[in-house]
Each structure stands twice: as structure tokens, then as C-alpha cells.
Amino acid sequence: MAAIELADAEGVEAVTMRRVAQVLGLSPMALYTYVPGKAELLDLMVDTVYARMPRSMPADDGWRARAAAVADDNRALCRAHPWMAAVSTSRPPLGPGLMAKYEYELQALDSTGLDDVELNAALTHLLGFVQTFARMAADERAVQQDSAMSDKQWWAGNAELLARVFDPERYPTAARVGAAAGEAHSGAYSPARAYEFGLGRVLDGLAALIEKRTH
Amino acid sequence: MAAIELADAEGVEAVTMRRVAQVLGLSPMALYTYVPGKAELLDLMVDTVYARMPRSMPADDGWRARAAAVADDNRALCRAHPWMAAVSTSRPPLGPGLMAKYEYELQALDSTGLDDVELNAALTHLLGFVQTFARMAADERAVQQDSAMSDKQWWAGNAELLARVFDPERYPTAARVGAAAGEAHSGAYSPARAYEFGLGRVLDGLAALIEKRTH
DNA sequence: CGCGAACGCTATACATAGTACGGAGAATTG
DNA sequence: CAATTCTCCGTACTATGTATAGCGTTCGCG
């Protein structure tokens, strides 16, 4: 789908009926011959991308490695198509691509001793984390881009606003942690680090449940 | 702010410059006297709601109870103002309300033995989970409402679409788990249950880290 | 007291969305 | 060959955020 390349290159907000039509060399209204409306277009885009996802799972390194692989694949997907994190929020498109993905990812977590309902909940939990992370990363990128200034400039610009609000006396913990987090962020701390942290927490959380189930 | 009540009653999409002005008995452009633009209006709404959040934390039931309380408060917030989950996604407004909330919630997790960077990451992780959950719940409600049909009707309507895609032979795991999850969902399984599951996983995940830090 | 400036507000207008409607030409089919 | 369907297009309507210009009131200062 041409709309996917458009979204990859210029973001979701560029995916407009008129724009997509232009890329295809058609008139805007011609699109409605193939697609009922914009919502369905987006659904199609999502399902198509799902269908194309890489599917290569280590079969025997234990559930933890498989779950991590699932998360990594989804993160890679959101990196390749940043608009996915913002779009797939509503009801899933329920197409063949999602189906295949669902099957694949369930198998990654199967044989953990969880019952079917727990299995579904665990997968949802894992994917929810990846999506939240991807969305945060995408937002950060968007802010940096449209404000057209670096982090440092932004913090400098809002310094006096911060000073009014960020009273270290009233908010000692926030001041302390905010400073540490800010420093870490501008230093060696990267989104990759945050992802690792979160994924570790999620897997540990699932591990606690799995251990309980398998005694 | 009148815009907040409007959003509570009719959703974010109803928060339109013209609509808000109408509620206030003003002309649309009069709003620009008080607010630079719509983005700032939304920021103000978010920060105001943050400032009004209930803040009553059990001081001495252990970090797990405090973290659960933080999560519950945030969930309650998203239940009272469903638009929050959809709006606060971009950069936080960085106002006094957010500041107070941040301080309060950090204190809930302080004294867990985590260093400052981890503390911030842990809180982000916890809030991220709540937001993901809230967003999923809100989406579900939205779908049910605008399709104006119950879950059963929807599944019935899409049955033949599903039949084409949901081949139990190609996707055995998905069929099995999907059936179980669907049954659980229409039965006793409720969003509340899903929330409990996810929160349990998040807290267990943090517990693993905290135990490691405190030996 | 009087007058000019600032303020609060309004009306109009423009750009950009999605998409409803009706029609024109081409392709397929009976 | 005729008829019907399919593909596509031009126009137009609605809703949205917001720029611009102008109106009346009020307030500060001489």
C-alpha cells in the first residue's frame, strides 16, 4: 500500500485522502472506490504491516527469551513505522495480518503453564508495554522536531516557568529525582535503556506468575 | 474550567473552540483572549485535573500498597475523565498540577532502596501501565458506543469475516485462546479483572528489582 | 471632567480535513 | 449490439483551527 510509505516518510498526519490520491496519481474521490473511508484505510495499513512482520523465534531458549523476542519484534516494528504506535490504539483491525501475529505470539508464550485466559492477558500486557514505550519515544521525537530545538534549548527556554513551579522546598523528592533523571537522560541514558528497564520489569512480573503456576 | 465538564460529558472530540465558547456564552474568537490556542487549552485542562487529584496515601503499609494506591488513583482519574487517557499522551504540560502529582507519587515509591533514576523509571512504568489500561478500556467503550451495538451483535456481524480469517487449522493456538478469552470476556471477566492482572504483574516486576537492590 | 489608549469581544474569512452526490467514460456481460 | 456495471472525476458541503480587522466599553492620566 502506497499509504504506508507515505506514513513512514512523513507521518500519519500526512496520510490524507487527497495526499494519498496524489501519490497514486488519482483524484481524491477515486479512493472511495477501493476503501469505504479513511478509518478502513488505516485499518488496512495496520493489518498489512502486521502481516509483513518478521517471524523468527528461538524455539528452545525458554519462554523468557521468546517473550523478549516478541517484544523486540514489536519494538522494531514501531521503530520502522512510527505511526503504528499512534494509530493502532483503537480497536484492532481483526484482519489476517493481526490473526497471524496473534497466533505467532501466543505460541511464544504457550507452554508456560498459564491457562488460556492468563495467556491472553500476559500477551496483552507485554504488547501494551511495548506500545506505551513506542508511543513515548515517538512523542519525544515529535516534540523535538516540531519545536525545532534541542532538549537543552527547550529546558533553557522554560527555565523560568520551571523555577516558578519547581520549588525544591515544596517538592523535594521531585526536585531530587527530576534532577537525577534529567542528568541521566541527557547523558548515557537512552530510550534503549528505558526499554530494557521496562521489559525487564514486565518479564519479571510474568515470571512471578509463571512460577506460581508451575509451583 | 468549563471545557473539562464538556469533555467529561461529551468526550474530547466535543471540545471545540466554537463549542467551548458556546458553553461560556462567548464568541469563538473570544477564547483566544485567554488562551493562545487549542493545544494550550488542553494542557490547562490536563494540569487542572492533575491538581485536583485525590492524594491520600497509606503511609505505612509497605511500598506495594502505596504503589497500588497510586495506580488506583490514576485509574479512578481516567474513569472520571475518560478523555485524559487520550490526551495526555504527548509531552506533559509541566504545570503546577503535574508537579504536585509527580512529587506525591515519587514519595509513594521512595524508600524502596531504588536509586533516583530507577525511581523515576519505576513510576513511569507504573503510570504507563495504568494509561495503557485506561486507553484500552476507553477504546472499548467508544467502539461499543459508536457502533451502537452490543458485543454480541458485533461478533455476529463479523462472523463470516472471522470465519474466513480464523481458520482453526492454520491458527490453532489463536483459536483456542481466542475462544477462551472471548468466553471469559463475555462472562465474569471484566475490565476490573484485567486491571488486577496487569497491576499484579507490574508490582511483581518492581518487586523483583527492589528485592535485588535490598539484597 | 475629558479624552485617548487598552481591553474584551465579535464578525468575517481562509485553509485543510473528510466525504456525499451526481455524472462521464470504459469495460464487461448478456 | 445493447445494457449494465465499474472506475474515476469535479463540485460542493460541513467542521475545524485560527488570522485579521473592527467594534464598543472602560480605565488611566492630565
| Overall helicity of chain A | over 70%
Radius of gyration of chain A: 21 Å
* Count of extended strands of chain A: 0
From the N-terminal CA to the C-terminal CA of chain A, the straight-line distance is 49 Å
SS-derived structural category of chain A: mainly alpha
Which oligomerization state do the chains in this entry correspond to? homodimer
Shape descriptor of chain A reads flat
Order of helices and strands of chain A: HHHHHHHHHHHH
Poorly predicted tracts of residues of chain A: none
Which chain pair has the greatest contact? A-B, 65 and 65 residues
The largest pleated sheet of chain A is described as: none
Tell me what portion of residues of chain A adopts beta-strand conformation. under 5%
User: Could you report the average pLDDT of chain A, rounded to the nearest whole number?
Assistant: 86
Total helix count of chain A? 12
Features:
about 220 residues; 12 helices; homodimer; DNA-binding
